[in-house]
Inverse folding.
């Protein structure tokens, strides 16, 4: 029979407010965070585009992404960087 969940042990992982004596406000500001919450990442501005191409080209692109375990956006960035580096 599995052990019951120990809620008290989980409480030690909660985000607690750090004391102001140990916190350098300028360090927190540079990190983009605040004392009241966990610092978050910068928001990512996403966009979307549609590409019309022959199915064999699209299938090839999808296969390359899958084989390299990359998202379409990652692979597009890699291909654009490679293209620009050859100019």
């Amino acid at each position: 029979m599995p052990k019951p969940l120990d809620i008290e042990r989980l409480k030690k992982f909660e985000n607690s407010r750090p004391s102001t004596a140990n916190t350098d406000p300028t360090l927190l500001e540079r990190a983009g965070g605040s004392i009241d919450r966990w610092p978050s990442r910068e928001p990512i501005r996403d966009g979307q585009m549609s590409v019309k191409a022959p199915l064999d080209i699209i299938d090839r692109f999808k296969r390359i992404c899958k084989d390299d375990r990359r998202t379409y956006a990652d692979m597009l960035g890699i291909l654009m960087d490679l293209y620009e580096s050859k100019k």
Q: What stands out?
A: The mean pLDDT is 80. Residues 1 and 62 are 46 Å apart (CA to CA). The two ends are 65 Å apart (CA to CA). The longest helix spans residues 72-85.
